[in-house]
Amino acid sequence: MSLTFGILLADDEENLRNIIQFNLQQQGYKVFPAKNGKEALDLFLKEKHHLHLALIDVSMPKMNGFELCEKIKSIDPHFPVFFLTVRSDRDDRIYGLKIGADEYLNKPFDLEELLLRVKKILSRYEVNDVFVLNNRIIRFNDLSVELPDKQKQILSVKEAALLKYFIQNKNKTLSRQQILEAIWEDKAEDASFRTIDNFVVLYRKLFETDSKNPQYFISVRGIGYVFKHK
Question: Which residues have a Cβ under 8 Å from the Cβ of 201 and sit 6 or more positions away?
């Protein structure tokens, strides 16, 4: 199971939006296009569990990019925002960065540069073969977890896949249905919400100091789970 990155693309210039969307899709990204700030915010609220980056123009009708960025950051302070704009004024760039933008690229821009910058931002979601969580060493290459007492716990392929999916989507609320579709894909009928719950019980036993008061694998009532991590 590999993570498909979702990108919110908001720009009122239809031709440019279509060109950017096409090139992002050629890189394997799933694109959620919007023609104004309000439509982009509605899309973000609806699809935020599937999104990993927002590419937004500053000058848009109904809600400008700065306002959109502030609203996104108020909902998820960790969510990366990348401005694409003709506004090259120094004060605009500084203001954009102050309100939380991760990147700021002036139009016209080179498409290859845009794609490289997008790739760099999304690289923060990548998970190395070795990941340390609460002094437990996860080795995804051999599906093992080394505990503080040096004992080793072997994970199943799906247990390792879901664990990696949580880490890739840290601090994001994931619904049980979303998890089923991501991990079991076209064989989602082979698992159930109870399967996911049982996996989380295992993760809490392995990684939490107190499994009854989890700090990492947190239940979100009526939705699913969020993996909390800096």
Answer: 211
